[in-house]
Amino acid sequence: MNQNNVEFYDAVQRAQSGDRESMLQIISAFQPIIQRMRYQVRPQERDDLSQTIVEGLIIKIMNYELEHVPTYAEFCKQLFDAE
What we know:
The protein is mainly α. It has one domain (3-80). The protein has helices at residues 3-16, 20-29, 31-38, 46-63, 72-80. Helix 3 runs antiparallel to helix 4 (46-63). InterPro entries: HTH_dom_conjug_TS-like.
């Protein structure tokens, strides 16, 4: 298990326990993806899209099963899979 996976696991665990700083750290890691997605919609819809994505990310973080160490790639895949 590499250091990045351990750090991500720890951040998810702390976020689920109510640590706002850890939640913001995870959201920050997803900002490049969010920014790319923003430019696929009309300018007037970009802020709403960002908010919707962040809300969905928070829900996924809070409900993520920590049975195994989630890698960033695994978490991204789960986040963007259709529900």
